[in-house]
Amino acid sequence: MNTMTLDTAGHAAPAQPQTVERETVDTQTVVKETVGQPLCDNAKLSMRNVNVFYGEAQAIHDVSLDIGRNEVVAMIGPSGCGKSTFLRCLNRMNDTIEGCRVDGDLTLDGEAIYGPKVDVVPLRARVGMVFQKPNPFPKTIYENVAYGPKIHGIASRRAELDEIVEDSLRRAGLWNEVKDRLDKPGTGLSGGQQQRLCIARAIAVSPEVILMDEPCSALDPIATARIEELIDELREKYTIAIVTHSMQQAARVSQRTAYFHLGHLVEVNDTETVFTNPQHALTEAYITGRFG
Amino acid sequence: MTDSNQSNGHSSVRERIEQGLARRHRKEKIFRGLGIASIAFGILVVALLFTDIISKGAGAFRQTAIELQITYDPAVLGIDKVDHESLTWANFTGVIRESLRARFPEVSGRSDKRELYSMVSSGAPFTLRDRLEANPELLGKTEQVWLAADDDVDTFVKSLDDSKEGFRGRTSEMMAGWIQQLLKSGELKRRFNTAFFTNGDSREPEQAGIRAALVGSLLTLLVTLVLSFPIGVAAAIYLEEYAPKNRWTDLIEVNINNLAAVPSIVFGLLGLAIFINFFELPRSAPLVGGLVLTLMTLPTIIISSRAALKAVPPSIREAAMGMGASRMQVVFHHVLPLAMPGMLTGAIIGMAQALGETAPLLMIGMVAFIVDVPGGVTDPATVLPVQIFLWADSPERAFVERTSAAIMVLLSFLIVMNASAVWLRKKLERRW
Predict the structure, then answer these.
(1) Whole-model pTM?
(2) B269 to chain A nearest CA, in Å?
(3) Structural class in CATH, domain B211-428
(4) Each residue of B177-235: pLDDT tens digit?
(5) Which chain A residues are Cβ-neighbours of B428 within 8 angstroms?
(6) What is the C-alpha to C-alpha distance for residues B344 and B326, in angstroms, rounded to an integer?
(7) Is B322 in contact with A93 (Cβ distance < 8 A)?
(8) Cα dist from A81 to A106, A264, A266, A272, whole Å
(9) What is the mean pLDDT of chain B?
(10) What is the CATH number of domain A34-132+208-287?
(11) What are the domain boundaries of chain B?
(12) Is A248 exposed, middle or buried (0-12, 13-18, 19+ CB in 10 A)?
């Protein structure tokens, strides 16, 4: 867990709350430049000058950001700020949306993500995704986890597949709860268990990056805590980008936090810095709860 | 003051709600009543239809037969050995006449005798031929055989149930007397009408059967199903999952919707012009019928399949896609299994429509008088609804009950088809 001063209510406490004056922030200001440190040295994913359009409307304006190896980067911001859109660019899930166009240089380990010759199938095997609403397949728990290894031909023998399934469920912290009912439908689990099943499913193909799009928004606090613990454990092996509406969650699980506003990347910094000493007026206004 | 005002306000609001409540309950009751009334009306109409059809058609499953003492006399038959060729020439009619004359020795005079002979179905000689062919040792011997009576006898016997006099329109005083005599002695009986299930169409009601039409319907529907389901599902998948949304796909969608509303006889004309005139496929064949019905059912299947695909939650597609499944894997592993029950429902509605379709088949010659049971999709055939149409058009009274019986067969065909589809759908349905 991140070591950060949290008050009892779990709110990130700004360093000098007294000095923050409640001046009005113009939330419609166009942000010209990203403040903080959007780039880093050991980038796993690196994005440069990314613009995303839905038809005529531009959803993302000139965003540059690096996500480092074994790092959890949280993306926060008010609804409709483009954080989910940005996340979905990283494994080209936006391809399926009619009229969506992505400009800019996006690379994974230096290899272009968008390009005429890039095949999305292996890309998505390397960059897994967990969605907002738990969406297990209407199949058994076993089949849910085994699906990825099966389609990618990772396991050749049944025993190997069994091993992958068990290992993935263990890492997702679900094994003890479901080991006796692997042949029961995955949709019969509780919401939190379903989401951990989805995480197990995602890590079963040994991805390098896991994208999480508000993974806890449909879960109760206890299930949320389990997932957050899990994210912290997963960081050792994977690079994680997480979109969240909960600032406490961003503060708890991430090393760096990116604040999006109206399609612009406003500020990127160490999570601690963002929550204790925000450099941009918009960031400060958002994390102190004045809008969003 | 304010307090009482407020409480006054509260109570008046409550009063108003209560006043409205009665009206709301009344409306609810009326609506529920209307619903029950419409369902009751529907059930009543269906019950009426069924009682009418069953009461009219039940008689067709029993056919009057006459028991005669038949002597396979080689002299009368004009043969000396039993083989296929000689049997073709053998005079079985003579044998039957002989036996009738023996049973009613008092009958004399040409016209009386002709009337006596007409009591037995003109198909009876063939029954005897088949018996002798199966048992050659019967030659020269005598046996008791039940032979189908003529449809006029059948009609008269059945009409005796309703009135003592019976229907005398086509039965003379003399014949009525013979019939009563035979009935009393037990030589004239109603027996199960196997011919109805084993024969093809015939001009003689007592020999007319449903088998050719049933097999024709089966073959036609088989062709329709084999062609329309895969094509319809493939078209739906392409339009829903692959095709870009642009003016062309919009145009295609509008056209599919319009095709669903085109009168079926137009498809018949199309089939006549294309399949028969241009491709020179055989007339009256289940193959052409199936092709025409495929054209007719395709829009139904495509529309319902697309609706079923649309109903699959996008989260499942996203989940599969996020795992790195290719588009085809997404469709075949996840979307199709979930959409299959809905697709099957559409296919069943389409097939049921196709089963009952008459008009387009008239255009491609399936209305022809066909006696033989079709052996394949290119043999001449007719289908159940056309058979019903043909029989309903026939003047003989005995065809009235056969028409109703054919409707019963058609309806049971439909019920069996739908039941198997429901069973299949239940089997395929996944718990969400």
Answers:
(1) 0.81
(2) 41
(3) mainly alpha
(4) 899 999 999 899 999 999 999 999 998 888 999 999 999 999 999 999 999 999 999 99
(5) none
(6) 25
(7) yes
(8) 20, 8, 11, 22
(9) 90
(10) 3.40.50.300
(11) 2-58, 61-200, 211-428
(12) middle
